[in-house]
Amino acid sequence: MNDAPMISLPTEKMLARIEGAIGWMTFNNPARRNAVSLEMWEAIPTILDKFENDPSVRVIVLHGAGEAAFVAGADISQFEKTRSSAESNAQYDRALETASRRLYECSKPTIAMIHGYCIGGGVAIAVCCDLRIAADTAKFGIPAVRLGLGYGHKGVKKLMDLVGPAYTKEIFFTARHFTAAEAQTMGLVNRVLPVAELEAYVRGYCATIADNAPMTINALKRTVGELVKGADADLVLSDRLVKACFESQDFIEGRRAFMEKRRPVFRGA
User: Fold this and answer.
1) CA 131 to chain centre
2) How much of the chain exceeds pLDDT 70, in percent?
3) CA dist., res. 182 & res. 166, Å (int)
4) Which domain does 236 fall in, by range?
5) pLDDT tens readout for residues 65-124
6) Cα gap 201→36, rounded to integer Å
7) Do 41 and 135 belong to one domain?
8) 87 and 20, same structural domain?
9) pLDDT tens digits for 124-183?
Protein backbone atom coordinates (compact mmCIF):
# COMPACT_ATOMS: atom_id res chain seq x y z
CA MET A 1 0.00 0.00 0.00
CA ASN A 2 1.21 3.51 -0.80
CA ASP A 3 1.43 6.24 1.84
CA ALA A 4 -1.44 8.44 0.69
CA PRO A 5 -2.72 10.72 3.50
CA MET A 6 -5.46 9.30 5.69
CA ILE A 7 -8.87 10.93 5.98
CA SER A 8 -9.72 11.95 9.56
CA LEU A 9 -12.35 9.68 11.14
CA PRO A 10 -13.84 9.38 14.66
CA THR A 11 -12.44 5.84 15.10
CA GLU A 12 -8.99 4.38 14.40
CA LYS A 13 -10.60 1.03 13.60
CA MET A 14 -11.56 2.33 10.15
CA LEU A 15 -9.09 3.96 7.77
CA ALA A 16 -9.77 5.86 4.56
CA ARG A 17 -7.51 7.43 1.98
CA ILE A 18 -7.64 8.55 -1.64
CA GLU A 19 -4.89 7.33 -3.92
CA GLY A 20 -5.29 8.54 -7.49
CA ALA A 21 -8.66 7.29 -8.73
CA ILE A 22 -9.07 4.79 -5.89
CA GLY A 23 -10.76 5.38 -2.55
CA TRP A 24 -9.38 2.82 -0.08
CA MET A 25 -11.58 1.79 2.87
CA THR A 26 -9.70 -0.31 5.42
CA PHE A 27 -11.19 -2.37 8.24
CA ASN A 28 -8.47 -1.78 10.82
CA ASN A 29 -9.07 -4.13 13.73
CA PRO A 30 -6.40 -6.79 13.05
CA ALA A 31 -6.19 -7.90 16.70
CA ARG A 32 -9.73 -9.26 16.23
CA ARG A 33 -9.31 -10.25 12.58
CA ASN A 34 -11.01 -6.99 11.59
CA ALA A 35 -14.28 -7.91 13.31
CA VAL A 36 -16.69 -4.99 12.90
CA SER A 37 -17.73 -3.02 15.97
CA LEU A 38 -20.52 -0.47 16.27
CA GLU A 39 -18.23 2.50 15.67
CA MET A 40 -16.90 0.80 12.53
CA TRP A 41 -20.39 0.35 11.11
CA GLU A 42 -21.08 4.01 11.91
CA ALA A 43 -17.91 5.14 10.10
CA ILE A 44 -18.77 3.47 6.78
CA PRO A 45 -21.33 6.11 5.62
CA THR A 46 -18.91 8.89 6.58
CA ILE A 47 -16.19 7.35 4.42
CA LEU A 48 -18.57 6.83 1.52
CA ASP A 49 -19.70 10.47 1.74
CA LYS A 50 -16.10 11.60 1.30
CA PHE A 51 -15.44 9.26 -1.62
CA GLU A 52 -18.71 9.98 -3.43
CA ASN A 53 -18.23 13.74 -3.11
CA ASP A 54 -14.69 13.66 -4.51
CA PRO A 55 -14.76 13.62 -8.34
CA SER A 56 -11.22 12.22 -8.46
CA VAL A 57 -12.44 8.94 -6.95
CA ARG A 58 -13.67 6.57 -9.67
CA VAL A 59 -13.52 3.25 -7.77
CA ILE A 60 -13.79 2.28 -4.09
CA VAL A 61 -11.87 -0.71 -2.69
CA LEU A 62 -12.66 -2.31 0.67
CA HIS A 63 -10.03 -4.49 2.37
CA GLY A 64 -8.88 -5.69 5.76
CA ALA A 65 -5.72 -4.68 7.63
CA GLY A 66 -3.09 -7.32 8.29
CA GLU A 67 -2.78 -10.74 6.70
CA ALA A 68 -5.38 -12.80 8.58
CA ALA A 69 -8.73 -11.49 7.39
CA PHE A 70 -10.88 -9.27 5.24
CA VAL A 71 -13.54 -9.11 7.97
CA ALA A 72 -14.09 -12.03 10.34
CA GLY A 73 -17.65 -11.06 11.26
CA ALA A 74 -19.15 -8.74 13.82
CA ASP A 75 -17.20 -8.01 17.01
CA ILE A 76 -19.20 -10.30 19.29
CA SER A 77 -17.09 -9.25 22.29
CA GLN A 78 -18.99 -5.95 22.20
CA PHE A 79 -22.45 -7.52 22.16
CA GLU A 80 -22.91 -7.38 25.93
CA LYS A 81 -22.63 -3.60 25.62
CA THR A 82 -24.07 -2.93 22.17
CA ARG A 83 -26.76 -5.62 21.82
CA SER A 84 -27.81 -6.44 25.38
CA SER A 85 -31.05 -4.43 25.49
CA ALA A 86 -33.85 -3.58 23.09
CA GLU A 87 -32.62 0.01 22.85
CA SER A 88 -28.94 -0.82 22.24
CA ASN A 89 -29.87 -3.60 19.84
CA ALA A 90 -32.04 -1.18 17.84
CA GLN A 91 -29.16 1.32 17.65
CA TYR A 92 -26.79 -1.40 16.44
CA ASP A 93 -29.28 -2.62 13.83
CA ARG A 94 -29.80 0.92 12.55
CA ALA A 95 -26.05 1.43 12.17
CA LEU A 96 -25.64 -1.92 10.38
CA GLU A 97 -28.61 -1.29 8.08
CA THR A 98 -27.49 2.24 7.23
CA ALA A 99 -23.94 1.13 6.45
CA SER A 100 -25.13 -1.81 4.34
CA ARG A 101 -27.64 0.29 2.42
CA ARG A 102 -25.16 3.08 1.75
CA LEU A 103 -22.57 0.61 0.51
CA TYR A 104 -25.06 -1.25 -1.69
CA GLU A 105 -26.43 2.00 -3.15
CA CYS A 106 -23.07 3.76 -3.52
CA SER A 107 -22.98 5.69 -6.80
CA LYS A 108 -19.43 4.57 -7.59
CA PRO A 109 -18.15 1.05 -8.32
CA THR A 110 -17.11 -0.86 -5.20
CA ILE A 111 -14.72 -3.80 -4.98
CA ALA A 112 -14.21 -6.07 -1.99
CA MET A 113 -10.55 -7.20 -2.05
CA ILE A 114 -10.74 -10.33 0.09
CA HIS A 115 -7.93 -12.24 1.73
CA GLY A 116 -8.06 -14.58 4.71
CA TYR A 117 -11.30 -14.88 6.63
CA CYS A 118 -14.51 -13.37 5.26
CA ILE A 119 -17.06 -14.56 7.79
CA GLY A 120 -20.56 -13.50 8.85
CA GLY A 121 -20.62 -9.71 8.70
CA GLY A 122 -17.65 -9.90 6.35
CA VAL A 123 -19.77 -11.77 3.82
CA ALA A 124 -22.58 -9.25 4.38
CA ILE A 125 -20.18 -6.40 3.57
CA ALA A 126 -18.73 -8.19 0.55
CA VAL A 127 -22.12 -8.93 -1.03
CA CYS A 128 -23.01 -5.23 -0.76
CA CYS A 129 -20.08 -4.47 -3.09
CA ASP A 130 -20.33 -4.60 -6.87
CA LEU A 131 -17.39 -6.96 -7.33
CA ARG A 132 -15.57 -9.42 -5.07
CA ILE A 133 -11.99 -10.36 -5.91
CA ALA A 134 -10.43 -12.91 -3.58
CA ALA A 135 -7.09 -14.47 -2.76
CA ASP A 136 -6.90 -18.24 -3.11
CA THR A 137 -6.37 -18.39 0.67
CA ALA A 138 -9.72 -16.74 1.46
CA LYS A 139 -12.33 -18.55 3.56
CA PHE A 140 -16.05 -17.72 3.53
CA GLY A 141 -18.86 -18.63 5.93
CA ILE A 142 -21.91 -17.42 7.85
CA PRO A 143 -22.09 -18.92 11.39
CA ALA A 144 -25.55 -17.60 12.34
CA VAL A 145 -26.90 -21.07 13.16
CA ARG A 146 -24.05 -21.61 15.63
CA LEU A 147 -24.90 -18.38 17.44
CA GLY A 148 -28.69 -18.62 17.44
CA LEU A 149 -28.89 -15.41 15.40
CA GLY A 150 -31.81 -14.58 13.17
CA TYR A 151 -30.70 -13.30 9.77
CA GLY A 152 -32.75 -10.51 8.19
CA HIS A 153 -34.42 -11.00 4.83
CA LYS A 154 -32.57 -8.08 3.22
CA GLY A 155 -29.21 -9.69 3.85
CA VAL A 156 -30.48 -13.10 2.75
CA LYS A 157 -31.80 -11.64 -0.50
CA LYS A 158 -28.50 -9.92 -1.35
CA LEU A 159 -26.68 -13.22 -0.93
CA MET A 160 -29.37 -15.17 -2.80
CA ASP A 161 -29.25 -12.72 -5.72
CA LEU A 162 -25.61 -13.75 -6.14
CA VAL A 163 -25.55 -17.48 -5.46
CA GLY A 164 -29.19 -18.63 -5.77
CA PRO A 165 -31.49 -20.35 -3.25
CA ALA A 166 -29.73 -23.73 -3.00
CA TYR A 167 -26.26 -22.33 -2.25
CA THR A 168 -27.78 -19.78 0.13
CA LYS A 169 -29.34 -22.61 2.13
CA GLU A 170 -26.09 -24.60 2.08
CA ILE A 171 -24.09 -21.63 3.36
CA PHE A 172 -26.53 -21.01 6.20
CA PHE A 173 -27.48 -24.60 7.06
CA THR A 174 -23.90 -25.86 7.40
CA ALA A 175 -22.18 -22.72 8.76
CA ARG A 176 -18.96 -24.27 7.42
CA HIS A 177 -16.03 -22.43 5.87
CA PHE A 178 -15.98 -22.50 2.07
CA THR A 179 -12.78 -22.12 0.06
CA ALA A 180 -12.24 -19.35 -2.46
CA ALA A 181 -12.60 -21.90 -5.27
CA GLU A 182 -15.97 -23.02 -3.87
CA ALA A 183 -17.07 -19.39 -3.51
CA GLN A 184 -16.20 -18.75 -7.16
CA THR A 185 -18.16 -21.82 -8.26
CA MET A 186 -21.16 -20.51 -6.35
CA GLY A 187 -20.85 -17.08 -7.94
CA LEU A 188 -20.02 -15.44 -4.62
CA VAL A 189 -16.72 -14.05 -5.95
CA ASN A 190 -15.82 -12.81 -9.43
CA ARG A 191 -12.13 -13.72 -9.50
CA VAL A 192 -9.63 -15.75 -7.45
CA LEU A 193 -5.91 -14.89 -7.50
CA PRO A 194 -2.81 -16.15 -5.73
CA VAL A 195 -2.54 -14.10 -2.57
CA ALA A 196 0.75 -12.50 -3.68
CA GLU A 197 -0.94 -11.20 -6.85
CA LEU A 198 -4.21 -9.97 -5.31
CA GLU A 199 -3.45 -6.29 -4.71
CA ALA A 200 -1.71 -5.76 -8.06
CA TYR A 201 -4.63 -7.39 -9.88
CA VAL A 202 -7.17 -5.22 -8.04
CA ARG A 203 -5.17 -2.09 -8.80
CA GLY A 204 -5.12 -3.03 -12.49
CA TYR A 205 -8.88 -3.67 -12.43
CA CYS A 206 -9.42 -0.26 -10.82
CA ALA A 207 -7.32 1.41 -13.51
CA THR A 208 -9.44 -0.25 -16.19
CA ILE A 209 -12.68 0.90 -14.57
CA ALA A 210 -11.36 4.42 -13.87
CA ASP A 211 -10.59 4.89 -17.57
CA ASN A 212 -14.23 4.31 -18.53
CA ALA A 213 -17.13 6.76 -18.62
CA PRO A 214 -18.41 7.38 -15.05
CA MET A 215 -21.95 8.29 -16.12
CA THR A 216 -22.28 5.09 -18.15
CA ILE A 217 -20.99 3.02 -15.23
CA ASN A 218 -23.39 4.73 -12.82
CA ALA A 219 -26.33 4.24 -15.20
CA LEU A 220 -25.52 0.55 -15.54
CA LYS A 221 -25.07 0.12 -11.79
CA ARG A 222 -28.37 1.81 -11.02
CA THR A 223 -30.17 -0.14 -13.75
CA VAL A 224 -28.94 -3.48 -12.40
CA GLY A 225 -30.01 -2.36 -8.93
CA GLU A 226 -33.50 -1.65 -10.23
CA LEU A 227 -33.79 -4.84 -12.28
CA VAL A 228 -33.08 -7.10 -9.30
CA LYS A 229 -36.17 -5.58 -7.65
CA GLY A 230 -38.36 -7.36 -10.17
CA ALA A 231 -41.83 -5.87 -10.41
CA ASP A 232 -40.77 -2.91 -8.25
CA ALA A 233 -38.05 -1.81 -10.67
CA ASP A 234 -38.01 1.90 -11.50
CA LEU A 235 -37.39 1.62 -15.25
CA VAL A 236 -38.20 5.30 -15.75
CA LEU A 237 -35.13 6.09 -13.65
CA SER A 238 -33.05 3.78 -15.81
CA ASP A 239 -34.30 5.44 -19.00
CA ARG A 240 -33.52 8.89 -17.55
CA LEU A 241 -29.95 7.85 -16.71
CA VAL A 242 -29.41 6.41 -20.19
CA LYS A 243 -30.75 9.60 -21.75
CA ALA A 244 -28.36 11.66 -19.63
CA CYS A 245 -25.44 9.59 -20.98
CA PHE A 246 -26.44 10.34 -24.57
CA GLU A 247 -26.67 14.06 -23.75
CA SER A 248 -23.32 14.20 -21.95
CA GLN A 249 -19.98 15.68 -22.97
CA ASP A 250 -18.47 12.26 -22.28
CA PHE A 251 -20.52 10.78 -25.13
CA ILE A 252 -19.12 13.47 -27.44
CA GLU A 253 -15.62 12.71 -26.17
CA GLY A 254 -16.13 8.96 -26.63
CA ARG A 255 -17.24 9.39 -30.25
CA ARG A 256 -14.38 11.75 -31.07
CA ALA A 257 -11.78 9.54 -29.44
CA PHE A 258 -13.05 6.53 -31.38
CA MET A 259 -12.86 8.40 -34.71
CA GLU A 260 -9.43 9.84 -33.85
CA LYS A 261 -8.16 6.44 -32.69
CA ARG A 262 -7.04 7.75 -29.31
CA ARG A 263 -7.78 7.03 -25.68
CA PRO A 264 -10.84 8.96 -24.42
CA VAL A 265 -10.59 11.26 -21.42
CA PHE A 266 -13.88 11.12 -19.57
CA ARG A 267 -14.92 13.81 -17.07
CA GLY A 268 -18.14 12.37 -15.72
CA ALA A 269 -20.30 15.12 -17.23
Assistant:
1) 7
2) 95
3) 14
4) 214-260
5) 999 999 998 877 676 566 656 676 778 888 889 999 999 999 999 999 999 999 999 999
6) 26
7) yes
8) yes
9) 999 999 999 999 999 999 998 888 878 888 889 999 999 999 999 999 999 999 999 999
Asked whether residue 23 is domain-assigned, the answer is yes
Which residues, other chains included, contact 39 with Cβ-Cβ below 8 Å and sequence gap of 6+? Answer: 10, 11, 13, 14
Contact status, residue 97 vs residue 121, Cβ threshold 8 Å: no
Number of domains in the chain: 2
3-state SS of the chain? CCCCCECCCCCCCEEEEEECCEEEEEECCHHHCCCECHHHHHHHHHHHHHHHCCCCCCEEEEEECCCCEEECCECHHHHHHHCCCHHHHHHHHHHHHHHHHHHHCCCCCEEEEECCEEECHHHHHHHCCCEEEEECCCEEECCHHHHCCCCCHHHHHHHHHHHHHHHHHHHHHHCCCEEHHHHHHHCCCCEEECHHHHHHHHHHHHHHHHCCCHHHHHHHHHHHHHHCCHHHCCHHHHHHHHHHHHCCHHHHHHHHHHHHCCCCCCCCC
Q: Are 73 and 119 in contact (CB under 8 A)?
A: yes
Same domain, 177 and 161: yes
Shared-domain flag, residues 60 and 100? yes
Same domain, 204 and 74: yes
| 28 within 8 A of 13, measured Cβ to Cβ | yes
Domain's final residue, options 173, 189, 210: 210
Alpha-carbon distance of 227 to 51, in angstroms, equals 25
CATH number at residue 123: 3.90.226.10
Last residue of a domain, one of 195, 210, 225: 210
Contact call for residues 106 and 52 (beta carbons, < 8 A):
yes
